[in-house]
Amino acid sequence: MKPRIDSALGKLIDNFSSAVEESGEAIDMKRLYGAMAMETIIHVAFGVKVDSLADPTNPIIVYAKKSFQNDMSVTTFISIMAIILMPGVAEKLGIRYRGDITDFFRRFAEEIITQKKRELADAATLGTPKTTTSSSSFLELLLEAEEEGRRQQQANKNDEGNEQPKMGKKSSPKHMSTDEMVSQCILFFLAGYETSSSTMCMAAYLLALHPQAQEKLHEEIISVTAQLATERPQMAANVVELITFEDLPRFAYLSAVVDETLRLYAPATATERQASEDTLLQSTNYSIHVKKGDVVHIPIYSMHRDEEQFEQLEIFKPERFLPTTAAGDKAPPSFHRYSYLPFGGGPRSCVAMSLALREVKLALLHTVRLYKLSPCDQTKVQSFLLYFIQSIFTAFTINKQIPVELYYQANFITPKDIILKVEKR
């Protein structure tokens, strides 16, 4: 997976360089980060390379952008409510949420599945079966798991034909159907694209408004990168390849910036869970009876702004995710772990969480490493003069967020645009 993300990172750096040379005074961050997120998720999910900036008319790019970049219409809202509240009736009436987009990606995924299955079959025929590698796509991993399941199933059948007595019967492993694989690929794509793009944009936006936090992050990046170059001098010339997934925990403030961005602007404003059995939820103050089949709505956006959990909740404060004791040792966070759910929680958390976090951190890391971000006259703000006056009197620490316009789609929010001034460091 890392080589695929590195490829997209290299293109992101080139795109930033070109944009800054053309006009660093006002750069559309959503355009650049959206391109990277698109290229990464399509390459990782399906194993297909695209260039969304060079080829904006590519149907994959067109339908992917169409998935999120509109406000919710009344018709869409009615369709969603019908699907949630009356799924059986909605199915009989043929009510679907954005069926044209789903149909396109279904056809796209089915074509790739057919192609990859043919490649696996040809490789097996030649006696060189393909094996999973670090650069395998999500779809290839599913197909290889399916093929392994079939081989195990055949081995079990052969064992059953053996005349020797058995203590017990082996169960046949379950493997995914084509429909299940298509569904997983579409979910992986939709879950990974806009969450990554939006988080990158909002993190850049917040850092531009908070120069002290940006400089603190830049200092950490330079310091840790220098340490890594000393440890692996043979890789020092290529910083993109030098920093691995395993190195990311060493960038503590970077993680805190991303966590705080997701607290303030989690792409998913809510999530749901359906009870698989009757249960009783109890606390010291109340109890709730939940029946089997009930759908529990979890308001992520509101929970992230709970005054009992987060002090100065409207302020961008990455340090809240870097709690320490008086002795300087790392301490547990001051908030309940289930009050912070940018990717959901438990076994049903977001399938693309790991990819999204790694992608966001690496993109932000290299952006701040190479460039300085600041607001410009096109940054969404009610009064640009007022912003600078406030900056002067607060020592360049902004306590109020500059309003940013958002798209609202079902339980997702995405920024309409993020325009910033970008300067080379």
Summarize the model shown.
With 425 residues, the protein is mostly helical.
Please render the helix and strand layout as text.
Blueprint: H1 2-23, E1 27-28, H2 29-46, H3 59-66, H4 74-85, H5 87-93, H6 99-125, H7 138-160, H8 178-209, H9 211-231, H10 239-242, H11 252-264, E2 271-274, E3 279-282, E4 287-290, E5 295-298, H12 300-303, H13 353-370, E6 371-374, H14 384-393, E7 406-409, E8 412-415, E9 419-424
Helix pairs in contact: 1-2, 1-13, 2-8, 4-5, 6-7, 6-8, 8-11, 8-13, 9-11
Keywords:
425 residues, mainly alpha, three-stranded antiparallel beta sheet, two-stranded antiparallel sheet
What do these coordinates show?
Helices cover 52% and strands 8% of the residues. It is mostly helical. Strands 1-9-6 form a three-stranded antiparallel beta sheet. A two-stranded antiparallel sheet has the order 2-5. A hairpin with a 4-residue loop joins β3 (279-282) and β4. Residues 165-169 and 382-401 have low confidence and may be disordered.
